[in-house]
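Researcher: Quick test of sequence recovery. Tokens follow.
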């Protein structure tokens, strides 16, 4: 029985150590009896060793399981952190989506409102553009008809005056040839001049003996209307004033948001700043110039580029700087780092699309190149346009400059400088004054042409002045006035003074001829030395020095 109690004790301890045994291994009965005591002890020792090994193995397995559990716990905690981060990111994304949706909603509302505004603006300008063009065309016609009338009147006056002078000089020379007395020759020349004037200018006064030159000038015919220069200018001013008033009423029935250039431009600028992508998606940089052109054309109606000093027209716009559109566009925003943003050239676009074509029309049809005020006004305007235009290859600008040169050339061709003998002119005061006026008018025109040297660099201004004017028109007059040295010297002095030194350089027929005249005057003054000619000699030496230096 003791052995049985010992076996039960061992089983209980083993059960406590390993948590029980498998029924098949531990449950079998060990042999009992006194003869097997030592064997039992030996077997028990072996079993305990096995149990220790199994216990250590179980402990190790348990430790590994604990480590695995710890790792599982760490992984679970990491997953929890990831889940919390994901939840936080999702919450942030939801808030961002809400903000974006609110922004998109605001953008959609803005763009819908802008779409309605632009549709209304385009519709408004589309209906007003034909009215603007109609009034602008009326202004062009007024300018053109005034220029045609003035040109016709002045041409008739000049032709008649020169023809009358020719008649007077011819009769005077004929009287000298016939041996008529000086007084009789003067009376015959005056009568011939008066009859020629009355016949050419006003046939209704052909039988009048009291008609004066001033009266003839004021009665110059322009077709059947018998308009003088003052009446022409008065009618021209009235028509332009009507056009000016008409242009101011074109937008009278339109809201300010569509009719005021500053308001319209501000709305478009706000669009570009707030919704830049949609601004470029709508190709606004390509269409902005065409959209704004009606406003520019409406200001062209009241623009008088040939009258910058308000000498003839006290109303309207006289310089580019007075134009609203030009001042407003100077602050129009530009996008950063966008190659398709051409709004920086919008002023240039409008200048080339609207301003230059209008000025080209005025140059071709209305510009009087002999008028100093108009010449200076046009020169200043072209200089301003050249500063605004950054495209050196602009066809319309080249066309404008070519038109200016063409008008200068045509005016040079129309200039007449008479070559009447000084011997005759010394007895005919009116003819002498006319000859002097025609000569100085030609020199005035030379001086006006020289102002275009910088603008018309590529043109043949040198040939126009030196060949067409000086060699063909001025030099023959100087040659014939050589008989009157004082007059010849004064006229030669004025001509040489205005010519640039580089134009006198080298050998040119005109320069060589002027040097010959200068040498001839020098020789004559050497032959006729007297105190009266001392100042003339000094003047002649100065002229000759400039010609020689050239």
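Model:
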């Amino acid at each position: 029985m003791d052995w049985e109690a010992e076996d039960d004790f061992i089983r209980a301890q083993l059960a406590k150590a390993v948590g029980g045994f498998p029924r098949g291994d531990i449950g079998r009965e060990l042999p009992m009896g006194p003869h097997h005591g030592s064997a039992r002890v030996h077997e028990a020792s072996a079993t305990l060793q096995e149990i220790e090994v199994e216990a250590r193995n179980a402990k190790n397995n348990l430790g590994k399981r604990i480590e695995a559990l710890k790792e599982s716990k760490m992984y679970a905690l990491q997953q929890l952190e990831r889940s919390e981060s994901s939840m936080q990111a999702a919450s942030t994304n939801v808030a961002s989506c809400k903000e974006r949706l609110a922004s998109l909603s605001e953008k959609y509302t803005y763009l819908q409102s802008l779409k309605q505004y632009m549709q209304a603006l385009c519709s408004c300008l589309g209906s007003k553009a034909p009215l603007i063009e109609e009034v602008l065309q009326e202004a062009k016609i007024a300018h053109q008809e005034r220029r045609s009338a003035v040109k016709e009147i002045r041409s008739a006056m000049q032709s008649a005056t020169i023809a009358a002078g020719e008649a007077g000089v011819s009769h005077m020379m004929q009287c000298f040839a016939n041996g008529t007395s000086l007084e009789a020759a003067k009376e015959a020349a005056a009568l011939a001049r008066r009859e020629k004037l009355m016949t050419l200018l006003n046939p209704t006064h052909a039988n009048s003996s009291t008609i004066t030159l001033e009266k003839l000038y004021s009665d110059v015919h322009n077709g059947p209307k018998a308009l003088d220069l003052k009446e022409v200018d008065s009618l021209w001013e009235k028509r332009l004033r009507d056009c000016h008033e008409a242009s101011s009423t074109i937008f009278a029935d339109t809201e300010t948001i569509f009719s005021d250039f500053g308001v319209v431009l501000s709305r478009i600028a706000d669009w570009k700043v707030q919704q830049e992508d949609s601004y470029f998606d709508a190709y606004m940089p390509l269409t902005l110039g065409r959209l704004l052109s009606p406003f520019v054309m409406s200001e062209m109606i009241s623009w008088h580029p040939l009258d910058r000093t308000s000498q003839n027209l006290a109303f309207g716009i006289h310089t580019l700087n007075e134009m609203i559109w030009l001042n407003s566009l100077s602050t129009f925003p530009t996008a950063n780092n966008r190659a398709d943003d051409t709004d920086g050239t919008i002023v240039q676009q409008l200048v080339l699309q609207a301003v230059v074509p209008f000025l080209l029309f005025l140059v071709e049809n209305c510009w009087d190149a002999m008028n100093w005020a108009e010449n200076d006004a046009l020169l200043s305007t072209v200089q301003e346009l050249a500063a605004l235009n950054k495209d050196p290859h602009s066809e319309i600008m080249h066309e404008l400059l070519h038109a200016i040169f063409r008008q200068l050339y045509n005016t040079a061709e129309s200039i007449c400088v008479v070559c009447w003998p000084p011997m005759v002119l010394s007895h005919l005061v009116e003819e002498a004054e006319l000859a002097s006026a025609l000569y100085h008018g030609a020199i005035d025109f030379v001086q006006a042409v020289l102002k275009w040297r910088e603008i018309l660099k590529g043109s043949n201004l040198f040939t126009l002045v030196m060949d067409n004017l000086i060699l063909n028109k001025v030099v023959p007059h100087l040659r014939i006035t050589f008989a009157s040295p004082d007059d010849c010297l004064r006229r030669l002095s004025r001509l040489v003074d205005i010519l640039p030194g580089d134009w006198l350089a080298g050998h040119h027929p005109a320069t060589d001829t002027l040097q010959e005249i200068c040498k001839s005057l020098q020789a004559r003054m050497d032959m006729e030395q007297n105190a009266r000619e001392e100042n003339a000699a000094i003047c002649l030496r100065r002229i000759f020095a400039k010609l020689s230096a050239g």
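Residues 148 and 208 are 30 Å apart (CA to CA).
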